[in-house]
Amino acid sequence: MNAEEKFREIYEEYKNMILKIVYDRTGDYHIAQDICQETFARLYGYQNDINLDMVKGWLIVVASHLTSDYKKKASSRREVPTDISRDGDDCALEEEVARHLERAEHRRLCGHVLKALREKNEDWYDVLMLVEYLGVPRKVVAKKRGVSLSMIDYYLRKAKKWMKDNFQKEYDEL
């Protein structure tokens, strides 16, 4: 097995675990994706120096450190909304707080829906994540999974229908 195949095998085995660990710590799927990608990018650079028996622990430690670094940097930034005037416009502040809370609730619901989808059908979840969130072309996903393009489309349709059937009411209430 060459280095590229070894890397792909490790990636397939641990990508969801790392994504979940980071998502649980950040609560933001997009941040979790970025940190997961950076974790595996570092593995790619050091793969010849890592004992394969220890790779799971190595990935968890690297992802944890990257997450901690992200949180430290995020907490040190103090972003002031640009639409709030300096004379203390309470209405603008309340609107900004309301928007922030709405975004937080939306992220919470997305995490809940994705977790439920993963529990319902791992294949649907994986295909949805690869195609819709990571932007991997459907043809590439089909080839990688060893299935037809129509099967990938089927998984996407089934996943979206299931999410809509089970969570549309909750989404509409946001």
Give an account of the 3D structure:
With 174 residues, the chain is an all-alpha fold. Helices cover 80% and strands 0% of the residues. It has seven helices and no strands. α1 crosses α3. The longest helix has 31 residues, at 90-120. The protein is flat and about 60 Å long.
Question: What is the topology?
Answer:
Blueprint: H1 3-26, H2 29-46, H3 55-76, H4 90-120, H5 122-133, H6 138-145, H7 149-172
From the structure above, extract its key features.
0% strand, mainly alpha
Q: What is the overall pLDDT average?
A: 82
> Helix amount, in percent?
over 70%
Report the biggest beta sheet as strand number plus sense, adding barrel if it closes: none
Distance between the termini: 50 Å
**Total helix count?**
7
Query: What form results from the Cα inertia axes?
Result: flat
Q: Strand portion, in percent?
A: under 5%
The low-pLDDT segments are 79-87
Specify the structural class: mainly alpha
The overall strand count is 0
Our Rg estimate from Cα atoms comes to 20 Å
Q: SSE order in H/E notation?
A: HHHHHHH
